[in-house]
Amino acid sequence: MLSGTQYFLPAAAIAAAVLLAACDSAPEQSGAGMMGSRGPVPVLLAPVTAESFTDNFSALGSIRANEAVDIRARISSVVTEIHFAEGQAVQRGDLLVELDSREIAAELAVAQAAYEKVKSQFDRSRSLRATQAVSQAQLDELAADLRRAEADVTAARTRLDHCSIRAPISGVVGLRHISPGGLVGPDTMITTLDDLQVVRLSFSVPETYLATVQNGMQVAATTSVYPDQEFTGTVVSIDPRVDAVTRSVTVVAKLANENRLLKPGMFMNVALQRSRDNVLLIPEEALAPRSGRQFVFVVKDGVATEREVRLGIRAPGRVEITDGLSAGETVVAEGVQKLRDGAQVVEFAQPG
How far is CA 279 from CA 104, 285, 315, 334, in A? Predict the structure, then answer.
């Protein structure tokens, strides 16, 4: 029995040794097989193209009149005549309201009489000055009195003109807030006057779009009031200050409004457009973001080289490159996640 046991143990030890040797060699053979099969990474490539591109931006804007005036009296008096109808189109200089002017007309008459009296005295004294009958000091005093009397006439005539309230601009008259016989003054709102041939559309643009928005660019706007109609115009001014809270800037565009369909206070959906040439575009999938920076893999002679880029606007499925690439270069459009800098790549065929 002992001799049998002695014979069995060496055989078991040999079998275990063989098994361990096989296990140790298996990973080496597997690794060798994997290394032997490693080759270029299959990817999909895309050229960097320089194209004409139209920038688009949407915002909500508000309409206001091109020019808007609150019509008020310059003096306090009683309304005698009203010469406008609500909603009427008037021209600059048209008479809107007349105020009671009898008292001011009397003041003008008194001032005119005083002026004529002083002027007569001055004329006589000036003719006598040549004979030394009137001193130069007396003549200078009469000249000052004449200028004062003339100023009194001018002031009275100006107050009389203020009794006739005229349109300061051409436009459309608003609602009437006075009646004949009512007392009005500088604090009394008579009506409003809006120039609506052209309207101003104000809207806010995020500061990230400041490089896109510029004076003269085209604007298209729509409103739910006229859903089938588009109103076009151009940007005329951009606020030089960025709002510190909203991080946006106010932009103003002018829209033609010959039929006066657009009213001050209306909301509109704004679409800005700007055409640019030689815009570098690549597929959005080509980007490899890392630590807040953007990278792409540029392929040349079958080798992918990582390169940092700067982005511009984004379009559906594509992105603008403002720095880091040149037109005609080739980038990896699909398979970026499998790459490292300097990797060899091969383009795989897309399914039919």
Answer: 70, 18, 12, 22
pTM of the model: 0.62
**Residues 6+ positions from 186 with CB-CB distance below 8 Å:** 72, 73, 74, 75, 76
DSSP element (H, E) containing 128? helix 102-129
User: End-to-end alpha-carbon separation of the chain, Å?
Assistant: 75
Whether 277 and 58 have beta carbons less than 8 Å apart is answered as: no
Distance CA 181, CA 179 (A): 6
| pLDDT tens by residue, the chain, 352 residues | 344 444 444 544 444 444 444 444 444 443 333 333 467 899 999 999 898 888 777 889 999 999 999 999 999 999 999 999 999 999 999 999 999 999 999 999 999 999 999 999 888 888 777 676 778 888 788 889 999 999 999 999 999 999 999 999 999 999 999 999 999 999 999 999 999 999 999 999 888 778 778 898 888 899 999 999 999 999 999 999 999 998 899 999 999 998 899 999 999 999 877 778 889 999 999 999 998 899 999 999 999 999 999 998 888 889 999 999 999 999 999 989 889 999 999 987 655 4
Reply yes or no on domain 41-53+278-347 having CATH 3.40.50.10330: no
* CATH 1.25.40.10, applies to 72-189: no
72-189 matches 57-64+195-275 in CATH topology: no
Residues 133, 136, 139: CA angle, nearest 5 degrees: 85
Assess contact for 320 and 304: CB atoms under 8 A: no
Class (C level, CATH) for 57-64+195-275: mainly beta
Backbone φ/ψ region at 24: left (φ over 0), alpha (ψ -120 to 50), beta:
alpha
CA atoms of 73 and 166, how far apart (whole Å): 10
Domain ranges of the chain: 41-53+278-347, 57-64+195-275, 72-189
DSSP states of 157-211 as a string? Answer: HHHHHTTEEE-SSSEEE------TT-EE-TT-EEEEEEEEEEEEEEEEEEGGGTT
